[in-house]
Amino acid sequence: MIIVYTVPSCSSCKKAEEWLRAHELEYKEINLLTDDIKREDLLKILSLTDDGTEEIISKRSKAYARLDMNFDNVSVNSLISLIYENRTLLRRPLIFDETRLQVGFNEDDIRKFLPRSFRKVKLDEDIQAIHDELSMIEDLGTS
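and the corresponding structure tokens:
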């Protein structure tokens, strides 16, 4: 199941949710400001990052400025507690499932949540469209 951490006023969150609905992907939205956040979800997010806290902590947030600390020197348990108590520390949207994490909304990158079979069909359609266009160009050149 795809999980999306959002806040209501975030335009990128809205775009991500619209994209997921348009592609008929089942997901669960978790409002960072009002919903319960599971410790397991935060651990999952951390485990899926390539760059640890650099990837998921918003350095532009008021919470980050208020805390004024180096997150690289914080234990995992302390980090989970800090995030839980200061939810706006997280960049958003955070989109994840069992094996993938997307931080922010990027229309090209979010495609990784599409089933592989769908991506294959779309790729085949795109390749065919390119071949058709090249054939049309060749036909115009020979006329």
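(Above: one complete record from the training split.) Residues 50 and 111 are 18 Å apart (CA to CA).
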